[in-house]
Amino acid sequence: MTDARPPAGPSGVLERYAEWLPISDATPRISLGEGSTPLVRADALARRCGAAEVWLKLEMCNPTASFKDRGMVVAVAKAIEQGATAVLCASTGNTSASAAAYAARCGLRAFVLVPGAKIAQGKLAQAIAHGARVLAIDGSFDDALCIAREVTEELPVALVNSVNPYRIAGQKTAAMEIVDSLGDAPDLHCLPVGNAGNITAYWQGFSEYFHAERASRRPRMLGVQAAGAAPLVSGKVVEQPETVATAIRIGNPASWDGAVAARDASGGAIVAVEDAQILEAWQLLASEEGVFCEPASAASVAGLLNADPSELAGKQVVCTITGHGLKDAELVEQIDSDMIRLSADYGAVASALMEGLS
To answer: What residues have CB less than 8 Å from 25, skipping those under 6 apart?
Structure first.
C-alpha cells in the first residue's frame, strides 16, 4: 500500500462536489484551487497509538494553508450570487486569512474582527497582505463573533463565519474526499474542536455519503479541545479561554449543537488535552512524520495518543491537520534548537558533521 492517497477529479470544491453543494447555475464558479488535499499515511504515529493505520488529512495544503478555504469558497460564491460587495468575519486567524484571500480574488471588500491581543501574527499577516481592513477589538473571539452577527444584520455586508450554513456545506467535502481516497469511511476520525463547525461539517459529509451508499459505514468522531478552552467537555461556556493553540481558543462554540449531535450520533467523544500534550504531538508530527502544522492541528493527534490502545487495535484512523505550522511560527522558539555556530572553515564543519553522525 502506498503511503499517500492522491485526490482525483476536477480542481476546486465548487466543481468537484457541485452535486453535493447548495449551488446553482447562477452561482459563480470561483476557485483558488482549494480542496483535493493529500491524505498521507502516518506509520510512526500508528505504531505509537496501536492503530492498524493512521492517515493525516493535510488540510494545511489548501491555498491559504488551512481548512477554512473549503467553506469560504462556497460562502463567498453565494454572497456574490446574492449581490454582496463586502464580507465580514470574526476570527482567531485562519478565517480572516481565507476570507481576505477570496474577497481579493473576487473584487470584494473584506473586514475582519479579531481579538486584538490573541491572534497568531502569521495569520494576521495574511489578512493584511490580501488587503482586508482589520478591526482589532479589546475582547475575545466570542465577543468578536457576537458583534459580527449583530453588525451584518444591520449593514450590507455578508457574514462568512461558520454560522453561515454555506461554510459548513463546503467543509463537509473533506469527509467526502477521505471516503473517495480510502474507498470507505475510516473507523475513527479525530479533529480539533474550537468553534465546532468542522466536526459538524465532517459528520454531515460522512452521513451524506453513507446515505447515498458511497460509504458502507460512518466513523466514530473524536473531537479534541484544549483543556483551557473546553466548553464542550465541561458542558458550560468558558468565559476566558486560554491555550497555546490559538485557533481553538474559543469558549462558546457557534456550532455547539452540531458538535454534540456528531459526537452522540457517531458513538464518539469530545475530550480535552493539556497544552503540554498538544505541543508534544506538534513536535512529534514535525520530527517523525515530516508534517509541520499549527498547534491546534496537533490537538487531534494528542487526543489520539491519549486514547485507549485496546480500542484502536485493528482500526483505521484519520486525523485532520487543519493548518500549517508557519501560521504560528513564533512557537518554534520554544523548541530546543540543534543549531551550532561555526567559523567559515571546512574543518569545523566536517568535525561537526562527524560528531552528529557518530
So the answer is: none
